[in-house]
Specification:
3 copies of one chain form a homotrimer. By secondary structure, chain A is of the alpha/beta class. Chain A is 38% helix and 17% strand. Chain A contains 6 helices and 5 strands, in the order βαβαααβαβαβ. Chain A has a 5-stranded parallel beta sheet with strand order 4-3-2-1-5. In chain A, α1 runs parallel beside α4. At the A-B interface, α2, α5, α6 and β5 of A face α1, α3 and β5 of B.
């Protein structure tokens, strides 16, 4: 469970843990950019989905979701720039990062109950775990973020 | 002030610090779930309330507050599921976690001035402190999160 | 690049890194208060602007921006209290913190492209960098926060 065992002190960071409460695509873009950058630096990334995070990873939601956490009035402008610049959607960035084998994604068991979903109903999710297990994982991380 | 003095290296995490800017109940639920899990793993938790955090802990607000940070249109659905699953409100989770004696809650002095409140006007708050003191507390933590 | 080299173990925290996704002034106030407190404790602070963060630091936006991330209905009340208490706007707090020389502000290169801005179009920004470089900076930090 501990990825870091063989990484000596003074090496570049070992593990980043991101707790994802938000299901808004602006914050998910930020999460995907940081995840993608971290794996390209040979870090491990672990992600824990809470309430809206689980919702946003539902197979029937993930591609349709256009929710922004702020500045709704600028959403169209940003969307058209993302298209012009050929920046892929957050879930494509995450898919690519996951292909390295260095990204693990967990859904919170309580949040999974709220949405009444199983692992199979969620994209990218490796396991459904309790918050206690997540605390243990965060304790090992060099970088912790809450999105 | 340093809870960690006697905890050797390699032990499970010692202290989690959560800076609570948000006063929205979705994010407060996430905070309460993590706090509750952390104390059950024998961690200490320290919480610092900023602007909306102080507002949400006001005795005349805490139980009435229904604000969500995102996905307002799904609020009713989530509320009814929480009820069905008998998941207690965030402040009840926090009350229980606090009974372990391992949770300390601070309100930012500047934010307390903005709301014109004293410690007695706020639920669960142990002390009103300045941001400098909070920085010092965060420096000791194994896990830092900003909600 | 590593500010911490000469700071021995056991000393007060060395560096705080804040990833700023949000462009809302409530969350930016929280960021500025923590930054200001950290430099007053002799810490270094590094800030990385993502999507809305870059937007909020645009020279043609920074002073006009009144966006709140939540509780819009309380915005006027808070604004008038801030004025009464003579609490300066977040960007003035940041300007003062930056004068100590212990605050570095970076804009994410992808976000800068989205807004089609250069360093000169942004207030306070020292450099435009990629997310990989930011991961490296976060790895060195004692405190990491995502706003």
């Amino acid at each position: 469970m501990n990825f870091n065992k063989n990484i000596g002190e003074g090496n570049l960071a070992e593990k980043m843990c991101i707790t994802v409460m938000s299901g808004s695509i602006d914050r998910l873009i930020g999460m995907a950019v940081l995840t993608s950058a971290a794996v390209s630096m040979d870090m491990e990334v672990e992600i824990f989905l809470q309430l809206w995070g689980v919702y946003a990873f539902k197979k029937d939601v993930i591609k349709q979701n256009m929710n922004l956490s702020e500045f709704n009035e600028l959403g169209e402008k940003v969307a058209s720039r993302l298209k012009e610049l050929k920046i892929p959607p957050w879930y494509e960035m995450l898919r690519e990062a996951k292909e390295t084998g260095r990204v693990k994604i967990y859904a919170c068991s309580a949040a999974a109950s709220i949405w009444n979903v199983k692992k199979e109903d969620l994209e990218f999710v490796d396991e459904i775990i309790g918050a206690g297990e997540w605390i243990e994982k965060m304790s090992d991380a060099k970088i912790n973020l809450f999105i």
